[in-house]
Amino acid sequence: MNSPRDLAELEARAKAGDAQAQYIMSALLSKQGRKLDSREWLRRAVAQGHPDALFTQGTNVLQGLDGPRDIVRAEQMLRDAAAKGSQAARRPLALMAALGALSKPDWLKAIDLIIEAALADHSAALRELGLLIEMAAPNDPRAAFALLQAARGGDGLAAFAIIRRSMTSPTGATQEEIVKWTEGLRRNNHPLAHYLMAASAEGGELASVTLDRNELLGLLREPPGVRVPIRHEVSESPHVLRIDQLLTAEECEYVIGIALRHLRPSMVTNPATGQSMRMPDRSSSTASLAPLYQDLIVHCINLRLAAAAKLPHENGEMLSILRYDVGQEYT
Question: If you average pLDDT over every residue of the chain, what do you get?
Fold first, then answer.
């Protein structure tokens, strides 16, 4: 597709009304920084009802990239995309339903959307489903099965989870797959890849399981994992409580992984202007998981944190992750 001839043929198909070619043209031009031309081809693909174009434009509208943020319009575009076969569109729709973005929170609607996308072999939805199953029923073999299918579909977060699991229990992954995924994580500079480098993990056999929609709806009829371990009082004055194992190791690793692409230099607030600014005193990186960057796993973790604080979920800020490389600090 990089040769001039291929690009010329693609553009000719796009001009002739080929919606798929228009969508690809939009993506290529976006990578080249030609934003206006990219948006025009995307607009044309959307006008023809191309499902991936509708999904992309819906997320753009949700973020306010092409004008004022419009949740109502974004949801309609995402619903249109899902109706035309976009499984990716079901994931933001699921989160919007769980959060109650436009109406009362509807967990059953949210989980049904994720299950539907997962059963259609959408990798990110399979990964999401697998971790939700683990939250609801630790060590359920369906969790490993869903994660393995997601990893085989190219999902890096699922691949990390499978490699870590394979160190202690069967996952069904082959040794060749584990080596390939480990090398991929290393190339992509996953901050926890060094934990995997020294491992000689073996996938092992995995019991035969199936993902049944009705059984999964029964298992996940309520948000899973919204439970708080025992609080330990550390001090009466000041009042300090400690909660051990509030998140599992796998959940912590997942939050680290999902935050990676959103990390930006940490900022401080200028006391005179109120504006955010860089300061050498704070050299870490920060990722704040806005709703569009979340999924139902992060949502359930947020519910658990709210329960731990004994405050309504809607009172919380966005979950933020700080990363300190060697030598970085906040003095």
Answer: 91
| 187-198 residues labelled b (16+ CB within 10 A) or e (exposed) | eeebeebeebee
Let me know the angle formed at the C-alpha of 171 by 159 and 189, rounded to the nearest 5 degrees: 20
Q: Is the pLDDT of residue 200 over 60?
A: no
pLDDT band at 203 (very low <50, low <70, confident <90, very high): low
Contact 35, 66 (CB under 8 A): no
Give this prediction's pTM.
0.90
Q: How far apart are the first and last CA of the chain?
A: 50
Mean per-residue pLDDT for 254-275? Answer: 92
Nearest to 264 by CA among 288, 290, 295, 298: 288
| Contact of 162 with 136, CB cutoff 8 Å | no
Show Cβ contacts of residue 206 under 8 Å, excluding neighbours closer than 6 positions: 141, 144, 145, 148, 170, 171, 172
- Which residues, in sequence order, are bridge partners of residue 264? 286
Place of tokens 């948000």: 223
Query: Angle CA(248)–CA(305)–CA(171) in degrees, nearest 5?
Result: 25
The Cβ-side half-sphere exposure at 329, using a 13 Å CA radius, reads 4
Helix (H, G, I), strand (E, B) or coil at 305: helix
Cross-strand pairs, 282: 279, 330
